[in-house]
């Protein structure tokens, strides 16, 4: 007898069962009003960071990005005069 679910569906169910402990229970978070489950705040922060390090002609080494971000944020927030 042929299964009612295609193979992809079975793989997905297996994945969910295997990783059940790592999955976020969004319904519980919403009911408890623990936090927002939207990604808007994170996306906004990423855009801000991107804006603050993307300067014309600028190139950054990975190991220097944190320092550059700190300086750039301080400058844009009026905490550093150059």
Can you tag this structure with a few keywords?
mainly alpha; elongated; single chain; 0% strand; 82 residues; 4 helices; 55% helix
Summarize the structure.
With 82 residues, the protein is an all-alpha fold. Helices cover 55% and strands 0% of the residues. It comes from Coleofasciculus chthonoplastes PCC 7420.
Write the layout of secondary structure elements.
Blueprint: H1 7-18, H2 26-32, H3 40-53, H4 65-76
Report on this model:
- There is one protein chain.
- With 82 residues, this protein is mainly α.
- The protein has one domain (7-76).
- It is built from four helices and no strands.
- It has helices at 7-18, 26-32, 40-53, 65-76.
- It is elongated and about 60 Å long.
- It starts with 6 loop residues before the first helix and ends in a 6-residue tail after the last helix.
- This is Transposase.
Number of domains: 1
Radius of gyration: 22 Å
- The general outline is elongated
Structural class: mainly alpha
Please give the largest β-sheet.
none
| SSE sequence, one letter per element | HHHH
What is the share of helical residues? Answer: 40-55%
Distance between the termini: 75 Å
- The total of beta strands comes to 0
